[in-house]
Amino acid sequence: MKRLLLFFAVYSPLLKVCSQSTNYQTYTANSTRIEKGKKGATAISPDLFGIFFEDISYAADGGLYGELVQNRSFEYGPADRKDWNYFTAWQYRTEGFGYGNISVETGEPLHPNNPHYVVLTIEDPGQEGIGLINGGFDAMAFKAGGVYNFSAWIRQLSDAAVPLEIELRGKKGAVLGKTDLSTQSRSWQEYKAVIQASAQEDSGYLVVLAKGKGKLALDQVSLFPGHTFKQHRNGMRDDLAEAVAELHPKFMRFPGGCLVHGDGLGNMYRWKNTIGPVEQRAEQKNIWNYHQSAGLGFFEYFQFCEDIGAKPVPIVAAGVSCQNSGGTWRIGSTGQKAIPMDEMQQYIQDVLDLIEYANGPETSVWGAKRAAAGHPAPFHLQYIGIGNEDRQTDAFRQRFRMIYDAVRAKYPDITIVGTVGPSPAGEDYDLGWKFADSLAVAMVDEHYYEKPEWFLSNGRRYDGYDRSKSKVYVGEYASWGNTLYNALAEGVYMTSLERNGDVVRMASYAPLLANVKHTSWNPNLIYFSNTGVLRTANYYVQQLFASNAGDVYYPGVVAFRSGDTAVAASCVKDSRTGDVILKMVHAGPGRLQAAVDLTAVGSAGGNARRILLTGMPDARNTEATPDIIIPSESSMQAKKKFMLDIPPYSLQIIRIGKAKK
What we know:
This protein is of the alpha+beta class. The chain has three domains: 2-46 and 551-656, Sandwich (Immunoglobulin-like); 49-64 and 256-534, Glycosidases (TIM Barrel, Alpha-Beta Barrel); 90-225, Galactose-binding domain-like (Jelly Rolls, Sandwich), CATH 2.60.120.260. Helices cover 20% and strands 30% of the residues. The protein is built from 13 helices and 34 strands. The strands form seven sheets. The protein has an eight-stranded parallel barrel with strand order 2-14-17-18-19-20-21-22, surrounded by five helices. Strands 1-26-28-29-34-31-32 form a seven-stranded antiparallel beta sheet. Strands 3, 6, 7, 9, 10 and 12 form a six-stranded antiparallel beta sheet that branches. Helix 12 (484-499) packs parallel to helix 13 (537-547). The longest helix is centred in the middle third of the chain and has 19 residues, at 341-359. The radius of gyration is 27 Å and the shape is globular.
C-alpha cells in the first residue's frame, strides 16, 4: 500500500487537467487527430476480449486443475518423456524395518481407459508400515488449518483386510495430518477421507501406508484442496481460477491450439475421452512433452466458462494432425497426417455429438451425459473452431469442408471459426483466406507473435478489411516480452481492435498460464508456482480493456498533437450503463497532451473514474516484486470538452458515468 501511495503521489500531477496556458481551443486548433477511423459510430462485437486456454507449460495438470497428486493413475511413461515411467513422481516407502514388494500391473484394471495400477504386497509392515509417497508437482503446498480431500480406488487381494494410514507430511517428515482407512472389498472400490493440515508447508507430500500384512491393488490416488473455485468437486485451483476470472473475459477458447490436433493422429485430442467419471477417462501424452490426465476435461471447461461468465469456444481438429508432428517445428514442415476417409464420418459425428453435449436437452443421448455429470441445463454453445494454424493442404481442405458442411447442415445457428495459419502473412495465411472466402466461413482465426514494434506499426491492419467477408478472431497474439513496454504496445494495438470491432469479433492474448518451473513458451499472461500467482503487466492491460469494454466505438473523440504510432486512443460507450469510456495508450517517452471532445458521444461529462497503469518501460512484475506494475485509481470531474496530460509509458482509462437527471 505504501508503494501505491508513493506511486500515485509521483504521477498524480501528470493527470491534472491542463493549466490555462494550454486551453482546449488553442490546442485543438494545432493538433493532429490520429483517430480518423470511419465516419460515425461503429458497433463493437459484444465478445471482443476473451481468453485462450491451452494445456501448455503445465497449465492444466499441476496448474489450473486442482489435483495435487502427480501421476495419480500410474499412466506416465516414456511416450510422455524419455526418462518417465509408471512410478514417476512416486517413491516406495519401507522405513521402520518393513518389507514387501511393489509392481505395476494391467491384468484387472479399474477401467480399460485406465489400464495401469499398483499392486502392493506387505510381508511385514514393520514399525511404521510400507507404502507410497507422492510429492505432487514440485511438492505439495498445505495451508495451516486447510482441509484436503483424499480418495483412492483400492481392491483387496488378500483374505484379510489391510489397514491403511494416509498422511500429509512436511519437508522434514513431520506429520501434518492423517487419517485411517481399511480395505473392505475384493472388488475395486473408491475410498474417501478428509484430512486437515496442522501447519503451513510449501514442500509437503502425501504418504499412503499399509499398516498390516496383506496384498492390495491401488489406483487413481487423489488429493484435492477442500476449497476449490466455486467449490466444485474435481474443481479448479482457487487462486489461479480467480486470477483468470478477474480478467473478465467475454469468452474462453479451449482446450488448446497445437494440443488439439496433436502430435500425430494417435495423439489427436478426442473430447469424448475427457468426460464422465475421472477414473474412466483416457489419459495421453501432451504435445508439449508432458502428460494429460484429462481430469480437466470438456465438462470442466464448459463449467468453468459458465462460472466466469465467458462464452465457451471449443476447438476441434480439422481431421488432420499438427504439421509439426514428430518434432518438425518449422514453417513448411510435413508432419501433417490426415484421418483416413473411411474414418471421417465417425469423426464428424463426434463433432456433432459435442454440440449436442453442450446444447442438447437432457433427454438427448449426449445431453443426458451432461446432465449425469451434474448440469441438466445446456451450456449455450454459440461458437466452435475447426482446426488450428493448419498447413493449407488438399487433405486439410477436404476434411475441413466435410466437417464444416455437416455442422452447418445440422446446427445452422452455430458460428464456425476457421483457421488461416500461424502467422499474420505468408502462404498459409493467403491460402487460408482464399479457402475461407470460397466457403463464406463466418469467422477465421488469425494468430501472430511479433515484436512490440510490429504491434505499434500495424494499428491500421483491419481498417481496410472487407466488411462483407469473414469476420476475424485473433485467437493468439502477444509481443515477445512481459515488460510494460510490451504490454503497452499490445494496448496500442487493442485500440485498433476496438475501432474495428465490427470485423474483429474476438481477440485473446496467448498463452494464458505458465508454471514458473515448467515453461514451454514465453511470454505468458499469468505465471504461477505452487504457492503464488504472478500477474504480468500484459495481464493488467488485458484486464483493463476487457473490464472497460463498450458496444459502440466513436471516432475522433480524442486528439493528440503527436502522430506517433506509439500513441493511440479509443472512445467507446457501454449502452447498458450509459458510461463513456476513454482509453489512451502511450508506449513511448515524453509527456503528451490530449484533447477530449465528448460532443459526438452525446455526453456532457460528469463524475469519472480514472485508472492509470504506468512505470518504466523495461519494468516487469516478478516473483520478488509482483506489484511493480499495477493500476492505480482515482476520481475526477470530466467536462464536455477538456484536456488531459498523458504520462510517458502509460495506459490511462477515463470512465465517465451517465449524468443523473
